[in-house]
Amino acid sequence: MDIAALGISSTSAVYRVISSSGLKSEGTFAMIRTGFQSFFDPPHIAQASLSTMESPGEYHLHIYYFLFDHGKKAHIINPLPIKNFQAMDTLRRTKTDKRDMGILTSIPCIGRMTTAHFFSEVTDISLFATYPRLIVFMGTDPGIYESGNTSKALKILKKGDAVLRKYGYLMADSYIKHNFVFNIYYYHKKRNAGFSHRKAMVAAMNKLMRTVHALLTKGEEYSAV
User: In this structure, what are the phi and psi dihedrals at residue 106, rounded to the nearest 5 degrees?
Assistant: First the structure.
């Protein structure tokens, strides 16, 4: 399997394409659309099975969406100096350790399987300085800009991580079904205000992600008190 690994700054990116046999190519490109295209054009890059990227901040989002729009999935990894790209598996195991997986499963009715899928997409919560950045990554970001009871503010673009969005939905659905307070005072409050089920679920997903982000950032388990 070929992997295209990127290191990203505000104006440029460096990349290496590696396979089981070693380094295949390397280079740089500008962080603009023409630069993205020049990076993506060579067949050995376009055919790479996976792209990984490290970025100090949000600079990775534009190239992430570019790859997503071209049918390529990318993983975002901790922006640490990485001398050997094969260390990515070790890094992922570190970021999905029992302490993190225990924080999420402390939320009622969020199980180990869903937690594992969540961390397969969100490898390091520190990459998201605020919860809106996590929501942008999930692809439900317009939902955080609610204005009173105006439901059209919850239209989403679906340009984020589709897998994370799927499991974010499952997490919120389970939480609604088993948490009376969240069900009555958040989900049904939205429904009674005229929101469709789908739009109320978007709001619920974003609300839950706010809680998830806070717990993981603080290293605290969930408490209903």
Answer: -75, -15
Cα(58)–Cα(123) distance, integer angstroms: 15
Assign a CATH topology to domain 3-88. Answer: Nucleotidyltransferase; domain 5 (3.30.420)
In degrees and rounded to multiples of 5, residue 120 shows phi and psi of -70, -25
91-111 pLDDT tens trace: 444 444 556 668 988 988 888
| Global confidence as pTM | 0.54
Q: Under a CB-based contact definition with an 8 Å cutoff, are residues 171 and 213 in contact?
A: no
Q: Is 115 helix (H, G, I), strand (E, B) or coil?
A: helix
The DSSP element (H or E) to which 70 belongs, if any, is: none
Judge contact between 56 and 9, C-beta under 8 A. yes
Question: Residue 51 forms beta bridges with which residues?
Answer: 4, 74
Q: Where are the domains of the chain?
A: 3-88, 98-218
How far out from the chain centre does Cα 202 lie? 15
